[in-house]
Amino acid sequence: MPHKNILLGSLKDSFILIWKNKSIFILLFMLQIIFFAAFSAINLNYGVKMMESEKAIDGYLASLKLDDVSVASDILQQKNILGDDPLLISRNFNEIIKNFRVYLAYFFILSIFFISAAWTMTNKMVYKTNFKISVNIFLKSLLISLFYLALIFGFFFSISSISFTQAAYDASKLIAKYLLFSIFSILLAYFMFISLSLMHNTALNKIVQKTLIIGIKKIHYILAVYFINALLFFLPLALLYYFIEKNPFILLLSIILLVFSFIIGRVFLINVVEKLSASK
Questions:
Q1: What pLDDT is recorded for position 1?
Q2: Which of 24, 54, 141, 236 could be joined to 258 by an S-S link, Cβ 3.0–4.6 Å?
Q3: Is 141 left (phi over 0), alpha (psi -120 to 50) or beta?
């Protein structure tokens, strides 16, 4: 089947499936809203705490007199050039790290649960799976998401265990390491969604092999799917940004379309991966 036919045919099939399975679509829509709400609550709670610690550090540093004359005077008087409470910086830095780790833990657990539930329900929409098969797919998706996300989140947990002294001393190495692993995380995410799309017709012990075959040999198809899904995501996001204070109706519509883009994206990817898996 030609490249264009696979993509357009799968996209058309995805809209038809959603139209024919309105009840599952509504459940998926509600699940997506719940995930966004939970993630926003976690992000707001721990984001505020980390910002407070950051502001405390910035405020303390701003109060210091670090010009040449003041530094020379402090040295002559045997005063600490970092002020009366230099440990305030490390205390607040450690507080940021602690809240960041708790934030990651909550986000990790939330992501695994949401991915497992969302992909199970999406498979039910596409393949009309019964309860027994749905449970099997849920367990598969749980293991798959746990495997990939553990690799991704493991790195962020590792860098959150560093001290203030280590961060200050090895800042350039830390940034380089972070950028390198960010690229690695993108690759993991690329293969993770392919693996999740293979759960219905593939045994768990063969998913990695088929994921690599499709992800590497059929990369042009998968990248095209991701590009289309990105367009479906960024268009309502742009509307949301532009009309956030201008038109409440279009604002609400853009939010609905934004949530819809995630659902159609999963269905679309499953349809394309199914066709690629069946083709030789």
A1: 47
A2: 236
A3: alpha
